[in-house]
Each structure stands twice: as C-alpha cells, then as structure tokens.
Amino acid sequence: MNEQESILAAQRRAAGQLHVGEIRRHIFLCCDQTTPRCCDKERSLAAWTFLKKRLEELGLTGQGGVFRTKANCLRICVGGPVAVVYPEGAWYGQCDPPVLERIIQEHLIGGCLVREYLIEEHPLPAPVAGD
C-alpha cells in the first residue's frame, strides 16, 4: 500500500467512526470569525457552544444523522450568527440559542423550515443518474 492509499484508508476509517454515511442534515454556523462582521465574536461562540451541546443532548450527532460544522464566515455579514442547513439549503439569520433551538426542533428533527428566520432557501439539486 502506497502513502496515498494509506492516507485514504485512514480517512475512510475516520469517516466511518463519524458515521458520515448516515448524515441526513448538515448545519454550518458562522462563528469564531477572524474579523467579526455579522455579530460580535462572543455572541457567535455562545451560539456554537449551545448548538454543540444541544445536538449532543438530543442524540442527534453521529448516528443521530446531524452533522455540525463551524464556519468562519458564511458571507451574509448582517444579522448573525448565520447558519445554513443542507440538503435543504436553508439559510437562517439571528441564530442565537433560542432560534437555534427552534431550528433543531422544527427543522433538524421535524423537517419543517423555520420561516420566521429564513433568509433564503436553495436546496441541493437531485443527483443525476450515473453520477
């Protein structure tokens, strides 16, 4: 096995341990910005801490099917923290803990968009046969 194959095998093991193949939804949260613009850094980090803790408490991470990622900037630099949930492509603003709780309950668990905080909706396209 060459170095590239070895690295790929290690990456596949890591993906398996993270249950990447079981992800149903993925939430990205704009926080810990290099240069805060949409909200202050402390506010964004509080939102991130809440999101991580709450997803764990509800058993949604790992085999629960929800993946979370801290994004340095989602480029909608107003009314943050900003989040986006895929595959629905639902972009949300004002994502402080109470709004995140609604997104978790209504969207991540219930499958319904939280229209009150929805900035834009742009779902990922359906896969084309043969891809």
Keywords:
single chain; alpha+beta; 5-stranded mixed beta sheet; 3 helices; 18% strand
Question: Overview of this structure, please?
Answer:
The chain has 131 residues and is of the alpha+beta class. 34% of the residues lie in helices and 18% in strands. It has helices at residues 3-17, 41-57, 97-109, and strands at 25-30, 66-71, 83-86, 90-92, 118-121. A five-stranded mixed β-sheet has the order 2-1-3-4-5, with helices on one face. Helix 2 (41-57) packs parallel to helix 3 (97-109). The protein starts with a helix and ends in a 10-residue tail after the last strand. The mean pLDDT is 93.
Strands, helices and their partners?
Blueprint: H1 3-17, E1 25-30, H2 41-57, E2 66-71, E3 83-86, E4 90-92, H3 97-109, E5 118-121
Parallel strand pairs: 1-2
Antiparallel strand pairs: 1-3, 3-4, 4-5
Helix pairs in contact: 2-3
Q: What can be said about this structure in brief?
A:
The chain has 131 residues and is an alpha+beta fold.
Computed CA radius of gyration, to the nearest angstrom: 16 Å
Portion in helices: 25-40%
Beta-strand fraction estimate: 15-25%
- Average pLDDT, all residues: 93
Q: Point out poorly predicted stretches.
A: none
Global structural class: alpha+beta
Identify the overall geometry: globular
What is the first-to-last residue Cα distance? 28 Å
The count of helical stretches stands at: 3
Order of strands in the sheet with most strands: 2-1-3-4-5
Element-by-element helix/strand order: HEHEEEHE
What is the tally of beta strands?
Answer: 5
Largest sheet: 5 strands, mixed
